[in-house]
Amino acid sequence: MKAKIVKSKQVICLLCIAAVVFLAGACQEEERKPLDNNPAIPEQVENPRWEGLPGAVKLTYDLPNDPNFLYAKAECVMKNGQVREAKASAYFNRLILEGFADTALYTVNIYSVSRSEVYSEPVVIRDVRPKNPYYLEVFKTLDMFADFGGATVSFFNADSVDLAINIAYIDSTGFWTEGETLYTNRKTGYVSQRGIDTLATVFGVVVRDRWNNVSDTLKQILKPLYEEELDKELFREYTLPGDEPSAWGWTLPMLWDGSTAEGHGFHTENKDTPYKWPQSETIDLGKKYLFSRFKFWNREAEQYFNTRCPNKLEIWGSNQPAADGSWDSWTLLMTVQTEKPSGLPDGDYTEQDLQAGKEGFEFSFPKGISTFRYIRLNIYSPPTNVGQFHMMEITLWGVEVN
Question: CB neighbours (10 Å) of residue 340?
Fold first, then answer.
């Protein structure tokens, strides 16, 4: 099915490209021409007003009574020399000029443009002041702290704007090294830099908006906590009453075989109606650990978020699992849920969604939990109404304890 979908998409793309090329060739001369050939200068807009917005200004004005007027165009030169511009058609008397990096005073020019692309003299608005940009507001909320294998930064993005949060660190050679970057519009969240030694390290974090305005750098010297990836060679299936059996040769040990390739995962067979949810699976890790992180991968053939891909699961821990499969001997460690970056419904996805799924879904265990040898995954219903789930791979990190 996937191959057919991909092939169909390729055909559609080729047809679209051919159509665009054809239309571009047929209309090339027409597109270069203005709508009219009238050299008259259009009348200016009148009575301009402005209102400061976060990283932007809203401009309103009175439209000219000129049939030659096509649209208004606002321009402003930023402190770095870049020019921001915005346009509004003759049907609107307002526009928003975005991308300001600060709250300094600016001068804005509003031009009237005719159907012949003739510009009027600008209407000049001086001392326009935007409000503090979103990226600087989010920067004020950053909190960076030492974490297992590196550092973690928390943030609060009250207005859910598109931002990039980037961590860097000074490596062993004494130079800054680019680290993890999170592109997000979530209200709250975390971004972590892993793989760092336990030595004191200088970390820095900046916030960047879609106009490449960049905040100052929040710097801290932190000593990462020790962690290691748990040895999957020690993992064993530990079936308890109530755990779901595997299906189609996708057995539980394939969940830690080191591969996310098709056919290298775990699949349940439950087909009861009404469907049984949640469904549980139990794993003996071979040793007792203090857990730091958990990561799992969903199936690429289902675009990582669709059909039988789990989007919510609980992780429980025990050292002496009850033989009857009851939950009395288990401790809930955390509940996790995947988030599709685009927020689109099941079956719809973007390239960002696919990239997030390919990278896997990683979660940090809460601080202060006890140490355990056995874990039990409790899977809730996938996004669609089916009776099974599949996962491709899991990985855990932590510290071995005696």
Answer: 21
